[in-house]
Design goal:
Blueprint: H1 2-9, H2 30-39, H3 46-54, H4 61-76, H5 90-110, H6 114-131, H7 134-151, H8 154-190, H9 192-198, H10 202-216, H11 219-236, H12 239-254, H13 265-278, H14 282-292, H15 301-316, H16 320-332, H17 341-357, H18 361-374, H19 386-400, H20 403-420, H21 427-441, H22 446-452, H23 454-462, H24 478-493
Helix pairs in contact: 5-6, 5-7, 6-7, 7-8, 8-9, 8-10, 8-11, 10-11, 11-12, 12-13, 13-14, 13-15, 14-15, 15-16, 16-17, 17-18, 17-19, 19-20, 19-21, 20-21, 21-23, 22-24
Length: 494
């Protein structure tokens, strides 16, 4: 009762209800009408809004005041958001709830309600220990020290002073680890050139990240080590190490070495599938992919990304019926048409390659003319799918026997090799393009191509797939694609 009485006395200091938006706000008011139109994306700019609301322009003081009031109320409403409805992960919901409680505890502290503030702080500490919220633990310990100092509780003060010292030491290592990881992430996201620059520094950085995780023992330090290692091994093309780390992480979770409440299990599964693709363990990868797919919500961004790796596993293992099924599932999903243009273009590219190598003639006939001809010209200032598009266009004209178009594209391919495939990480693409050029110079003679291309083909087999920082994506392995081309040339000859 005393707690309720203390809180009741503070109600007069609460914000005016008029400074937040009521749940049942209707469009009959100016604020309600403005909000509804904003939610429906009716206005492209302030001019349109001012004209609709007041038949005026943005200089109208009425519009300025309305906009100011609504913005303030929308910010105030952030504290009232139902965190479950916006689909935050559970630990993120608890973290935000803890920060809200911490703000309440800080208010009580300033009002000298030390007992109430301490009660709230201890509740936050319980949750923070469960989820390893280091910052919240430090803030709560500091708050409790203030309370116990004011209350003269020496025993409690000494206890929490020791706990604060331990947590601050953990935080020191954790913050250093997070700084290292965030710098790596920033450098690798900036540009391909930036990735190349940071790559030589990553072995030592990853060693430091592991050392700091072991010193700190916190989840955030582990997460920095985990994701920093992923970036490094991917840039190096060492996907066996990535596969090893994903499996170790699952083991560490089961052993309680890392926080299961916060570990991103779906992300780990996604990377696990991707690593199988890169180490060419296709059969095992497909087993895992089929096992985990139900854990990804269909139509979400993560699901579409997962399905790309699933498709590539099927394609590389020559399981084209499965690959076709995946394409159908993706393109039939209602959210497919909401994807970014680049994502849609990739799925069109996957479909086109599938139509090239599949034995399902009905599917090939349905897809080929539309996809092969409509594919955009490659962009000369980026890497990723440029070679895949070039190859697809080239093979299309090769199958048609269009010598004029092929000769025209040979010059383009040679220029692409000269300007864009200079580095060792492009060696596989360079070798395969040389095989395509050979097919034209040998007048599309399958026997001559097979004989004279044997040296290039063997070298292609010996050349490993590069790291993802620089690699052109092989939608179908070049070795298999070359066999498909030769088979097509032999069929044409007969």
């Amino acid at each position: 009762m005393e707690e309720l009485k203390s809180l009741a006395r503070l109600i007069e200091f609460s914000k005016n209800y008029k400074t937040v938006l009521p749940h049942d706000l209707t469009a009959e008011t100016k604020e309600g009408y403005f909000l509804e139109n904003l939610r429906n994306d009716k206005y492209a700019n302030d001019d349109e809004a001012a004209n609709d609301l007041y038949q005026s322009d943005t200089n109208d003081i009425r519009y300025k005041m309305l906009k100011h009031r609504l913005k303030k109320k929308l910010y105030n409403n952030l504290v009232l958001i139902n965190l479950q409805q916006i689909k935050l992960r559970f630990f993120s919901q608890k973290e935000i709830e803890c920060y809200t409680s911490l703000q309440q505890a800080q208010v009580l502290l300033k009002l000298a309600e030390y007992k109430l503030a301490a009660n709230l702080a201890n509740k936050i500490i319980t949750i923070s220990n469960q989820f390893e919220f280091t910052n919240l633990l430090i803030a709560c310990y500091e708050l409790l020290l203030f309370c116990y100092a004011e209350q003269g509780d020496v025993k409690a003060f000494v206890k929490y002073k020791q706990l604060l010292s331990i947590e601050l030491e953990k935080k020191r290592h954790e913050r250093e680890a997070v700084n290292i990881y965030q710098f790596i992430k920033a450098k690798t996201k900036k540009s391909i050139k930036s990735r190349k620059e940071v790559l030589p520094t990553l072995p030592d950085a990853v060693d430091d990240l592991k050392r700091l995780w072991l010193l700190s023992g916190t989840f955030d330090a582990f997460n920095a080590y985990y994701k920093g290692s992923m970036i490094y091994h991917e840039l190096e093309g060492d996907f066996s190490k990535i596969l090893e780390l994903t499996l170790l992480s699952e083991k560490w979770v089961s052993e309680g070495k890392i926080n299961a409440e916060r570990f991103e299990s779906l992300y780990n599964k996604f990377i696990l599938i991707y690593a199988h693709l890169r180490v060419k363990e296709y059969a095992s990868g497909l087993i895992y992919a089929n096992k985990f797919v139900s854990e990804f919500e269909a139509g979400t961004r993560n699901w579409f990304a997962y399905m790309e790796n699933y498709f590539l596993l099927a394609s590389h293992s020559k399981n084209y019926s499965m690959a076709e099924s995946i394409v159908k599932d993706v393109t039939a999903n209602p959210s497919y048409h909401k994807l970014a243009p680049a994502s849609v273009e990739r799925w069109l590219l996957y479909s086109a390659y599938l139509s090239l190598v599949t034995l399902n003639e009905t599917f090939a006939a349905r897809m080929k003319e539309y996809l092969f001809v409509s594919l955009p010209e490659y962009s000369k200032d980026k890497q990723g799918f440029n070679v895949a598009i070039l190859i697809l266009q080239f093979v299309y004209f090769l199958q048609k026997g269009d010598s004029e178009a092929l000769i025209y594209r040979i010059d383009g391919l040679k220029k692409y090799i000269l300007f864009h495939l200079k580095d060792s990480f492009s060696q596989r693409s360079k070798l395969f393009i040389k095989l395509l050029i050979l097919a034209v110079t040998e007048n599309l003679n399958a026997k001559a191509c097979r004989t004279k291309g044997q040296r290039l083909y063997l070298k292609l087999q010996e050349t490993p797939t590069p790291g993802d920082a620089y690699a052109e994506i092989e939608i179908v392995p070049y070795e298999h694609l070359w066999e498909v081309i030769l088979a097509s040339l032999e069929t044409k000859k007969t």
